[in-house]
Each structure stands twice: as structure tokens, then as C-alpha cells.
């Protein structure tokens, strides 16, 4: 547990050299703008709930404006923040050891365990009660097996990619990182296909006792994978523009941690939800 | 209740307030006072290369500024929540429901809980931690200054969402004077399902504001979790090499454990409220009878809710352990065991949640095991209390304002804590559950040790933060008044609980009226003391005597002049070197310079 070294100190304490609208000392607009976007997103979601049903108390226009505006501001701010903070002038900025960022990711993943926990606990509650609670959809298919294999394979390719950049093999790094992105996209596609099969073809209930658990957990996981694909794609684009080296690969490391975590959650899901509901 | 006030009055008040604010904005006072102070509360102590005015506060990523924003926000929210409390105690002055109506009473005890727990206590402690932790650790800033800023800025919108029912009612009443439809605003009523949001009540209640409140709680949980991650990473990675774990100060230890609890408790609450939101709006079965049922809600909620209790109180423990020795002239007794007890509380706090559910008819074997852990968690708390007493033993005690707060905090904690041990025992709990005994028990902690530790910190570090001194005699009176108020308010509630008066009712049998009136008078005493605190500090920020000697508390004598005071001393010297006090320029606002060089010393 050493402390951060000199360069990492200056990494986040010096004013951002290239910030927008301008670098002005120890200050930044991005946190406030991001919070405004998030607030718009939440207020829009709240109003969207109030706009539902026959006795809607707000019209549909305001929630949409707030939602779209909020998401827009949120994403634009995140882009500005991270672009100026990490991407722009990459080679000119001092390289930290990234220890704080890696700790940050580990702690975020700990919170994520608890985010998933509520859904898992619900499933354990109903699973230990009278079972089955109704007709279960047909879950164990070759699609799940293939999807699982794809996701596990993507963890392997990502690990190889990370090892490659650590060893300084840039081309192999790019190739395996690209393969990981492709496998991630395939998995998301597989999940969408499964949802289509279950909801449209088979007509499974979305909100019955089992459906609540199944779609809440796989949906939350699907969102995580989709976000992971976006993060990996960002890393890939940055790698394609020549960033990262054997000494500087913090973003690769943190994104890997996230991706492996999402992979592990999937294995838990397969064991408890898919196999566990019929076993 | 809002409906009773004519909208036009509210409109005039609001517009008047706005006009007054704009007037203040348009006519700013001169930037520099002749006594060397500026209008900003951080007198010459922060870096100067920041933008000025409102822009500075909107864009700041400095831990000290963000800490002040947190403290300001938390105090404002606390005053709002205190208004709810005053409304409740006013209603309970008489047995019948004559002051407010039942709906209003239900709403104020709900929003009182939500506001105080999520928007008062944690933000204020996060603020104190933000300001002090990097100074105590000798770090430049928090590990992630910008995440620090965004975590703060998410809180005001969350508060607006959570308390939206009242805001929309006020807006509706104001705008109602205009010929426009305000039905949507009036349809949102303040939430009244109780802060624990038990299902099925919270799923069945029609009030659409509940959905808005749930989203607000989710957003505030994200903000709190980001701040916790920031604290942990700061403590782990931002310490200089020569500051090992064995040298870590006691407040940082407590913030570390608190943040660890937040890390595991708040995300679960976030998911749980989203599941409730889905149940309310999309017909999922998470807390429906055929699904997880009401017990699932209680398990998930209290798995968050009991660690939350320690999330609230551990920073207070940390502040007491840090400040107490400074006024005893001795080191903290049993430092290492206080750290161990903090960690033990952190771990055990995740194994006691079902003691909130003893009366639900859960499995008796589970009940017994939760009873055992709940009783056992009293041990680390007692270790702290005894070590504090041992620290005072044979010390040269100095009854300054912070010290009075701390002694009061220790005494309220004895009663508040020991009454909790009784509640941890299943048979006792079955008798006292949902009575005012429970309210008295936890309020002796949340209106005892927690605000007293905050106020102790405010008195202890006020000179460091503002560069000025407050009126110490008033501060001592205020601290004493708060302690008296806390006991007068909450000890009668313990007795009322023994007599069987249930909580959460606006009306009660006439036999309880005497003790209820005593409790209400005590609550108003607390209110007066809070106002005194506020007036003292606000006035002292403006015109308090300038501190010229950084050793305000004579800490050098006993070798306890810690890092943050050293930082303060460096700042004062730097300021003196850069900008000597102009002796020809004494404006109306300033103190004469001979007084300025002689700040009130603790006696």
C-alpha cells in the first residue's frame, strides 16, 4: 500500500492543461455539467412515470425533452471530461502508475456486486418457496451455451491482449482487443436474440414471479455488457491511434477488470437462473 | 397545510426573496476588507488562481471548497428536516390532532427521516472529511477531485426529487394565483409512507410523488457511493510514503470504515428502491405476496439500513476520538483498540439487520442469532466509550466549547447506546417495538452524539477554516443548551415508550400529555440552540476577530499540533508575507488592528 508517486500526484492535481472552454486553474465545468445532465435524466425518468396511464398528470412532451436533453448533456459532459482528462495530449502528460484508478475500479466493482445482489436475493427468496411458481420459459438451449462460450472466450482474448501490451507487442494487442470487441458484440446480439425468442416467439411473461427475476437480472447484466463493449471500443480506438504502451496501460487494466467481472456475473447467472431454475 | 396559506402571500414572499437576492448580487461588497479578510468565508486561505464569485463555487474541484459546499448543503437540509421535527413536536403538544392534520403528520415524519439521514448527516460528515482528510493525510487533494465535485452536485437535485411533493405543492399554491392549470403540481403530495418505505403500503399508495422520491433516493445513493470510493482511494493511495497505516489518524480510520460500509450498503438500497419502482409501475412481483413478499423488502432494506446506522455514527466517533485528547492534554487512550473496535463495528454491522424485524414473525432461530450479534456489537461501542473516559482520566480538562460538545456527546451516547442493548434482546423488543422508546433510543444518538460531534468539529476547526474566531461564551452556552435539550426531549420519550405510547401517530390518549409536552419543550430548546449556533458562526464569519496565532487551542504545549494546524500556520505566515496588514486602511467592517492581533483565547 505505498502512496502514489510524484508523477501521479501531478497527474490529477495540476489543472487540466487542455480543458474546455479553457483551462482555468483548479476548476472545471465538467462535474457540474455532468451533474446537470444526470439530474435531467432522473427528472425526465420521474416525469415519464407520471406521464403513464389514463390519469397521467403530465403530457408526454416534457419528459421526453428532459430525458433526451439530460442524456445528451450527460454524455457530452462525460466525453469532454474524459477526453480532456485522459485522451488529449496523451503522450505529453505525465504518466502515473494508475494505482488510484485501479483502486477506484475495484471499489466500483464491489458496489456493483451489491447492485446485482438485490435481484439475486429476490430469486433465492422465490426459488426456496413453492417451485415452479408457474410455467417456466424454455431456457436451457444451445444459445445459452454458445453465448457463455463467447463471453468466456472474450475474457481470454482480453487477457491475452492485456498481456501483449504489457510485453510491448502492439499488433497482437490490437488484434486480440479487436477480437474481444467482436465477441462482446456477438454476446449482446445473442442476448437480444434470446429475448426475442422468449418474449415474442414463446410469449413468456415479462413480469410474473420468474420473469421479474430473469429479466431484471439478465437485463441489468445485458446493460453491463453493452457498457463494457462501449468501453472496450473506446480503448480500441485509442489503441488504434497509438496510445498505450508497456508502461502505460491503466485504461486497459481497468476496462479488463470490469470485463472479467461482467463475465463472472454471467457465470453466476447461468448457474443460478438458467440451470438453477430447473435443477 | 400549504393549501391554507393564500397563494398570493407565498408568491409575494418568493418574489420578494428573489428581488432581495438579486439586489445582494448586484451590489457586491468590496472584495477586500481592511482587516485582511474577504467576503469569502475562506479568508485568504485558498489558492488565488481560482475564478472569482459564483463561478468559483460552481466550478471548484478543490477539496476545501467542496467540503464547504457539502457542509452548507447538509446544514440547509438539516434545518429543513428540523422544521419537520418541530412540526411533529408541535402537533404532539396536545393529544388531539388540532395543529396539522393526520396526513401532514405522516408526511413530516417520513420526510424528516429521509432528509436527516440522506441529506443532513452523511453530507455534513462528507464535507468535514473532504476539508480535513487531505490535510490530516498531508495529501494535495482527494484522489479524484472532479468525481468529488460531481458527487456533491448530484445531491441538490436528489433532495429536490425526494422532497418534491412539498416543493410542487408550494409552487402550485404560488402559481395557482395565475390563470394556468396547476393540477399536476398539486397531484404530487409529500410522501407519507414512512422513511422505511415498507411494502405493501409503499406499493399500494397512489401518490405519484413516491416514484419521484424513489428516483431521488437512487440518485443520492450514487452520489454518496462516489464520495465513499473517493475517500477510500484517497486514504489508500494519497498518503505520503512516511505516513504508514500505523500513523493514520483516528478520524481517517473512521472515514475509511464508514466508506467501506457505504460501498456495500448504498448500492443495495439503490437496487432495492428500483425494484420497488418497478413493482409500483410495471407490475413486477419483487415485493408482491406471490413473489418475494413484504419480508423481502424488510430484509433488503435493513441490510442497508443497519449499516446505515453506523455510517451515520462512525464519523462522529472519529471526530470525538480526534478532538477529545486535544482538550485533555493527553494522547487518545487505547488508540489501537479504538481502531480495532471501529473495524469490528464495520464488520458486525452487516450481521445485525434483522433485529429491526423481531416483531415480524420471522424464524425464532434466526431471531436468536441476530439477537446474539446485536448484543455483541455493543462491545466495540463500549470499548470506545471506556477509552474516551480513560483519556479524560487525570487529564487537564479544558471546558472549551468543543469539549463541552464532546462530553455531552459521550453522555448522550451512554444512554442512547445502552437503551439499544435492551432493544437488541428479543423479549424486550417485542414489548417495546414501535413505541416511543425506540424513537427516544435512536434520537439520543442522532440528536446526541452525531450533531454534538459535528458542532464540536465546527467549533474546533472554525478558526482554521475561516481565519476568524467566534464568540466562545455564546458557543459554550449553545453547546450546553443543546445537551440539555436533547435529554429533556428524548428521555421522556423513553418513559412514554415504557408506558406503551406507540410511535407514528398524530393523536394519542390524554394520559400521555404531560411527558409529551416536556418533550416538545425540549425540542424547542434544541431548536433555539441550533439557531444560536447558526447566528454565532454566520456573524463570526463576517466580523469575528482575525486569528493571528495558529495555535488557537494551545496544542503545541501538549505536542498535539497536528498536520492540519501546521498547514493553517503555514497559510497564515504566507499570507502575512504576501500581504502585510495595511495599517492606514480600516473600514467600518473591520476590527481595530490591536484587537485583530489578539484573538479571543480559550480560557
Automatic annotation (TrEMBL), chain A:
<protein>
    <submittedName>
        <fullName>Heme-copper oxidase subunit III</fullName>
    </submittedName>
</protein>
<comment type="similarity">
    <text>Belongs to the cytochrome c oxidase subunit 3 family.</text>
</comment>
<feature type="transmembrane region" description="Helical">
    <location>
        <begin position="138"/>
        <end position="161"/>
    </location>
</feature>
<dbReference type="InterPro" id="IPR035973">
    <property type="entry name" value="Cyt_c_oxidase_su3-like_sf"/>
</dbReference>
<dbReference type="InterPro" id="IPR000298">
    <property type="entry name" value="Cyt_c_oxidase-like_su3"/>
</dbReference>
<feature type="transmembrane region" description="Helical">
    <location>
        <begin position="173"/>
        <end position="193"/>
    </location>
</feature>
<keyword id="KW-0472">Membrane</keyword>
<feature type="transmembrane region" description="Helical">
    <location>
        <begin position="57"/>
        <end position="82"/>
    </location>
</feature>
<feature type="transmembrane region" description="Helical">
    <location>
        <begin position="103"/>
        <end position="126"/>
    </location>
</feature>
<dbReference type="GO" id="GO:0005886">
    <property type="term" value="C:plasma membrane"/>
</dbReference>
<feature type="domain" description="Heme-copper oxidase subunit III family profile">
    <location>
        <begin position="18"/>
        <end position="278"/>
    </location>
</feature>
<dbReference type="Pfam" id="PF00510">
    <property type="entry name" value="COX3"/>
</dbReference>
<feature type="transmembrane region" description="Helical">
    <location>
        <begin position="213"/>
        <end position="237"/>
    </location>
</feature>
<feature type="transmembrane region" description="Helical">
    <location>
        <begin position="258"/>
        <end position="276"/>
    </location>
</feature>
<dbReference type="InterPro" id="IPR013833">
    <property type="entry name" value="Cyt_c_oxidase_su3_a-hlx"/>
</dbReference>
<keyword id="KW-0812">Transmembrane</keyword>
<keyword id="KW-1003">Cell membrane</keyword>
<keyword id="KW-1133">Transmembrane helix</keyword>
<dbReference type="InterPro" id="IPR024791">
    <property type="entry name" value="Cyt_c/ubiquinol_Oxase_su3"/>
</dbReference>
<feature type="transmembrane region" description="Helical">
    <location>
        <begin position="29"/>
        <end position="51"/>
    </location>
</feature>
UniProtKB/TrEMBL annotation, chain B:
<keyword id="KW-0349">Heme</keyword>
<keyword id="KW-0679">Respiratory chain</keyword>
<feature type="transmembrane region" description="Helical">
    <location>
        <begin position="170"/>
        <end position="191"/>
    </location>
</feature>
<feature type="transmembrane region" description="Helical">
    <location>
        <begin position="438"/>
        <end position="462"/>
    </location>
</feature>
<feature type="transmembrane region" description="Helical">
    <location>
        <begin position="366"/>
        <end position="383"/>
    </location>
</feature>
<dbReference type="InterPro" id="IPR000883">
    <property type="entry name" value="Cyt_C_Oxase_1"/>
</dbReference>
<feature type="compositionally biased region" description="Basic and acidic residues">
    <location>
        <begin position="576"/>
        <end position="588"/>
    </location>
</feature>
<feature type="transmembrane region" description="Helical">
    <location>
        <begin position="337"/>
        <end position="354"/>
    </location>
</feature>
<dbReference type="InterPro" id="IPR023615">
    <property type="entry name" value="Cyt_c_Oxase_su1_BS"/>
</dbReference>
<dbReference type="GO" id="GO:0016020">
    <property type="term" value="C:membrane"/>
</dbReference>
<keyword id="KW-0813">Transport</keyword>
<feature type="transmembrane region" description="Helical">
    <location>
        <begin position="212"/>
        <end position="236"/>
    </location>
</feature>
<keyword id="KW-0812">Transmembrane</keyword>
<feature type="transmembrane region" description="Helical">
    <location>
        <begin position="114"/>
        <end position="133"/>
    </location>
</feature>
<feature type="region of interest" description="Disordered">
    <location>
        <begin position="576"/>
        <end position="603"/>
    </location>
</feature>
<feature type="domain" description="Cytochrome oxidase subunit I profile">
    <location>
        <begin position="57"/>
        <end position="554"/>
    </location>
</feature>
<feature type="transmembrane region" description="Helical">
    <location>
        <begin position="474"/>
        <end position="498"/>
    </location>
</feature>
<dbReference type="InterPro" id="IPR023616">
    <property type="entry name" value="Cyt_c_oxase-like_su1_dom"/>
</dbReference>
<keyword id="KW-1133">Transmembrane helix</keyword>
<protein>
    <submittedName>
        <fullName>Cbb3-type cytochrome c oxidase subunit I</fullName>
    </submittedName>
</protein>
<feature type="transmembrane region" description="Helical">
    <location>
        <begin position="256"/>
        <end position="278"/>
    </location>
</feature>
<feature type="transmembrane region" description="Helical">
    <location>
        <begin position="66"/>
        <end position="83"/>
    </location>
</feature>
Amino acid at each position: 500500500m505505498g502512496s502514489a508517486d510524484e508523477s501521479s500526484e501531478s497527474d490529477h492535481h495540476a489543472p487540466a492543461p487542455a480543458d474546455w472552454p479553457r483551462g482555468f486553474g483548479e476548476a472545471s465545468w465538467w462535474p457540474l455539467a455532468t451533474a446537470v445532465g444526470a439530474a435531467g435524466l432522473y427528472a425526465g425518468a420521474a416525469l415519464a412515470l407520471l406521464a403513464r396511464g389514463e390519469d397521467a398528470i403530465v403530457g408526454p412532451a416534457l419528459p421526453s425533452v428532459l430525458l433526451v436533453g439530460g442524456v445528451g448533456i450527460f454524455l457530452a459532459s462525460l466525453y469532454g471530461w474524459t477526453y480532456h482528462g485522459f485522451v488529449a495530449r496523451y503522450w505529453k502528460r505525465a504518466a502515473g502508475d494508475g494505482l488510484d484508478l485501479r483502486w477506484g475500479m475495484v471499489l466500483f466493482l464491489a458496489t456493483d456486486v451489491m447492485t446485482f445482489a438485490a435481484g439475486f436475493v429476490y430469486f433465492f427468496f422465490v426459488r426456496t418457496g413453492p417451485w415452479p411458481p408457474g410455467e417456466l420459459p424454455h431456457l436451457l438451449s444451445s444459445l445459452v451455451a454458445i453465448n457463455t462460450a463467447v463471453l468466456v472466450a472474450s475474457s481470454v482474448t482480453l487477457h491475452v491482449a492485456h498481456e501483449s501490451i504489457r510485453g510491448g507487442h502492439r499488433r497482437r494487442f490490437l488484434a486480440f482487443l479487436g477480437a474481444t470487441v467482436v465477441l462482446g458484440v456477438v454476446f449482446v446480439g445473442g442476448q437480444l436474440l434470446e429475448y426475442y425468442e422468449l418474449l415474442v416467439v414463446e410469449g413468456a411473461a415479462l413480469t410474473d414471479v420468474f420473469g421479474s427475476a430473469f429479466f431484471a437480472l439478465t437485463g441489468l447484466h445485458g446493460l453491463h455488457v453493452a457498457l463494457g463493449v462501449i468501453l472496450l471500443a473506446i480503448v480500441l480506438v485509442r489503441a488504434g491511434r497509438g496510445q498505450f504502451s508497456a508502461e502505460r496501460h491503466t485504461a486497459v487494466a481497468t476496462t479488463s477488470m470490469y470485463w472479467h467481472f461482467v463475465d463472472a456475473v454471467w457465470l453466476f447467472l447461468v448457474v443460478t437462473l438458467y440451470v438453477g431454475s430447473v435443477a | 397545510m400549504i393549501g391554507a396559506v393564500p397563494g398570493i402571500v407565498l408568491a409575494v414572499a418568493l418574489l420578494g426573496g428573489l428581488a432581495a437576492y438579486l439586489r445582494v448580487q448586484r451590489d457586491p461588497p468590496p472584495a477586500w476588507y481592511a482587516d485582511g479578510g474577504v467576503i469569502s468565508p475562506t479568508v485568504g486561505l485558498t489558492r488565488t488562481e481560482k475564478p472569482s464569485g459564483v463561478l468559483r463555487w460552481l466550478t471548484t474541484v478543490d477539496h476545501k471548497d467542496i467540503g464547504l459546499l457539502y457542509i452548507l448543503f447538509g446544514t440547509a437540509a438539516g434545518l429543513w428536516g428540523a422544521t419537520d421535527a418541530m412540526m411533529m413536536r408541535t402537533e404532539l403538544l396536545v393529544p388531539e390532532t388540532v395543529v396539522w392534520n393526520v396526513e401532514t403528520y405522516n408526511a413530516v415524519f417520513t420526510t424528516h427521516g429521509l432528509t436527516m439521514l440522506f441529506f443532513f448527516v452523511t453530507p455534513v460528515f462528507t464535507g468535514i472529511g473532504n476539508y480535513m482528510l487531505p490535510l490530516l493525510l498531508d495529501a494535495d487533494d482527494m484522489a479524484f477531485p472532479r468525481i468529488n465535485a460531481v458527487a456533491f452536485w448530484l445531491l441538490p437535485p436528489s433532495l429536490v426529487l425526494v422532497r418534491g411533493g412539498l416543493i410542487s405543492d408550494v409552487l402550485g399554491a404560488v402559481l395557482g394565483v395565475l390563470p394556468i392549470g396547476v393540477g399536476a403540481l398539486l397531484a404530487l403530495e409529500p410522501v407519507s409512507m414512512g422513511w422505511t418505505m415498507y411494502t405493501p403500503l409503499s406499493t399500494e399508495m397512489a401518490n405519484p410523488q413516491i416514484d419521484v422520491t424513489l428516483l431521488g433516493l437512487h440518485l443520492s445513493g450514487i452520489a454518496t457511493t462516489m464520495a465513499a470510493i473517493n475517500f477510500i482511494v484517497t486514504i489508500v493511495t494519497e498518503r505520503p510514503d512516511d505516513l504508514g497505516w500505523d500513523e493514520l489518524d483516528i478520524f481517517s480510520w473512521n472515514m475509511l470504515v464508514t466508506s467501506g460500509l457505504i460501498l456495500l450498503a448504498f448500492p443495495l438500497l439503490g437496487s432495492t428502491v428500483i425494484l420497488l419502482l418497478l413493482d409500483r409501475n410495471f407490475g413486477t412481483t419483487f415485493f408482491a405476496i406471490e413473489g418475494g413478499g413484504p419480508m423481502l423488502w424488510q430484509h433488503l432494506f435493513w441490510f442497508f439500513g443497519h449499516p446505515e446506522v453506523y455510517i451515520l455514527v462512525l464519523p462522529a466517533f472519529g471526530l470525538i476520538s480526534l478532538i477529545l485528547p486535544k482538550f485533555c492534554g493527553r494522547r487518545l487512550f487505547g488508540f489501537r483498540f479504538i481502531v480495532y473496535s471501529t473495524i469490528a463495528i464495520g464488520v458486525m454491522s452487516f450481521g445485525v439487520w434483522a433485529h429491526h424485524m423481531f416483531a415480524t414473525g420471522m424464524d425464532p432461530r434466526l431471531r436468536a442469532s441476530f439477537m446474539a450479534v446485536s448484543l455483541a456489537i455493543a462491545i466495540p461501542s463500549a470499548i470506545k466509550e471506556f477509552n474516551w473516559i480513560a483519556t479524560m482520566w487525570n487529564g487537564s480538562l479544558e471546558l472549551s466549547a468543543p469539549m463541552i460538545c464532546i462530553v455531552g456527546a459521550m453522555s448522550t451516547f451512554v444512554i442512547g447506546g445502552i437503551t439499544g442493548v435492551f432493544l437488541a434482546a428479543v423479549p424486550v423488543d417485542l414489548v417495546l417495538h414501535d413505541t416511543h422508546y425506540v424513537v427516544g433510543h435512536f434520537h439520543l444518538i442522532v440528536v446526541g452524539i452525531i450533531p454534538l460531534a459535528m458542532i464540536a468539529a465546527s467549533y474546533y476547526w472554525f478558526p482554521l477554516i475561516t481565519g476568524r474566531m467566534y464568540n466562545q461564551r455564546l458557543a459554550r452556552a449553545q453547546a450546553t443548551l443543546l445537551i440539555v435539550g436533547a435529554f429533556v426531549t428524548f428521555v421522556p420519550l423513553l418513559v412514554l415508550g415504557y408506558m406503551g405510547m406507540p410511535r407514528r401517530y398524530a393523536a394519542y390518549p390524554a394520559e400521555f400529555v404531560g411527558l409529551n409536552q416536556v418533550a416538545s419543550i425540549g425540542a424547542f430548546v434544541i431548536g433555539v440552540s441550533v439557531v444560536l449556533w447558526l447566528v454565532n458562526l454566520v456573524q463570526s464569519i463576517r466580523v469575528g476577530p482575525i486569528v493571528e496565532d495558529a495555535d488557537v487551542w494551545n496544542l503545541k504545549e501538549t505536542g498535539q499540533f497536528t498536520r492540519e494546524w501546521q498547514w493553517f500556520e503555514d497559510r497564515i505566515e504566507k499570507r502575512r508575507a504576501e500581504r502585510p496588514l495595511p495599517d492606514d486602511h480600516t473600514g467600518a467592517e473591520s476590527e481595530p488592528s490591536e484587537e485583530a492581533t489578539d484573538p479571543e483565547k480559550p480560557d
